[in-house]
Model the fold of this input.
Amino acid sequence: MTALRAPVLAAGLAAVLALLTGCVPADEPTPSPSTTAAVPGPSEDATSLPVPSQSTKAAKKKAEKSPGAGEDHTNPASIGVVVNKRRPLVPLNYHPGDLRRPAVSIGTGGESALLRDAVADATEKMFNAAAADGAPMVMVSGFRSYATQVDTYNHWVRQHGSEAAADMISARPGYSEHQTGLSMDVGDITGACNLQQCFAETAAGIWVANNAQRFGFIIRYSPGEEKVTGYSPEPWHLRFVGKKVAGKMAQRSINSLEEYFGLPGAPGYS
Done:
């Protein structure tokens, strides 16, 4: 009786172990963290800023170590898009769908008085703050469509006599930040030095240089960055990148999106 009991117990134990180890399939996949959610491809009817992706704590820490991690630098609907002489818009005739006129002093009309909705919100806050500090501003130019940029660029080619000369002050169609609805030219309310280098010395120009980052804007084309941006300095040209990026660029004294995001410079068209 005792001799039979041991094999029976052993067989029962083996059966139980087999059932236990069979509860979880050996080939069941393990979830992996993702630093960013899939972003739809660029399209002409893109109308909103990308929804921030959800990620694990480990992925967030990894992303924080790299400036701009998780940003989409190609999709024109993203506030992280980088447009320069070697990074055209895709498609070239991209047209944002959430443009609106900000409630600020505007020295232009038509489409040039428009900005992306989120940019318009930030613009209103920035202009109100500037006025309260005694440096009222005017929006000189905002959005420009592909067709408008064709006319703008051709004007400067005729004005300067060559594409090479025009390329230093005007973007070719499909390569302009203005077409994203994320950029604008600002000026002093008096009109002094608007769209000129001396704007940097006006009350508005000084205020912008010291405070624009608080509202998510950077001066896109700074002195000394010509070999990176491909353009002459424009102290009046502001680009919306969000408070986080603008703040970190100011803290680190980085003056170009190319350097901040670790992208190649674009001194000329490739």
